Amino acid sequence: MTVKVEHGSAALPRAGCERHTPLLARNVLLASHDTVGSRAAELAALDAVAEGGRLHHLVIVPEFWQSITGDGWRINASTEHAFCDYVEATIEKEILTHLSRVSREARLRGIEYSAGSKHGGLETCLIETSRESDFDLVVIGAPRPRGHAGLRSRMDLETLVRGLGVPLVVIPYPTGGSSEA
Fold first, then answer.
1. How many other CB atoms sit within 10 Å of the CB of residue 174?
2. What is the DSSP letter of 150?
């Protein structure tokens, strides 16, 4: 394993940004989904990639989206199919926009970037992906605090920690007056 703890100012963060994690790793797996909390995890993951390292970005589409079909008493099979296509296209567009933003930041930092998405249980998808390559570190954001708007897709952290074979860093939700986007 090549996780290295930095002390002092050996690696400086981007101008105007504080360093989110003192860890450096060659191969980092980031799970994020473009919310305020996961953006904090993205910055920390980018900061954690050692020079010449790589970042693999995983977006997990939670299982609950599978049941969003628009079915109801006023809908027929044709409209249900059109609605499902619309939801799928909207999710795909949002994911691609998100991945483009993180990819751009990685490129600016000289980090090798790859990305992928999976559909299913959050911890299951993350554990599976962590086993698909030689990752040194997994980075996720902390759950959204109570009172912040947004969907509540919860990860079973005990299952995740027991299933991972590499260190996990959970980045705290950012403090301050920003609202969920």
1. 14
2. S
Q: List the beta strands (DSSP E) in 15-48.
A: 23-31
d(CA 28, CA 98): 18
**pLDDT higher than threshold 70 for residue 61:** yes
- pTM beyond cutoff 0.85: no
Q: Residue 116 carries which side chain, given as an amino acid letter?
A: G
Per the listing, tokens 């999710």 go with 91
Q: Which helix (H) or strand (E) holds 134?
A: none
| Contact assessment for residue 127 and residue 163, using Cβ atoms and an 8 Å cutoff | yes
Helix (H) or strand (E) holding 68, with range, is none
Residue extents of the structural domains in the chain:
23-141+154-171
Superfamily of domain 23-141+154-171: HUPs (3.40.50.620)
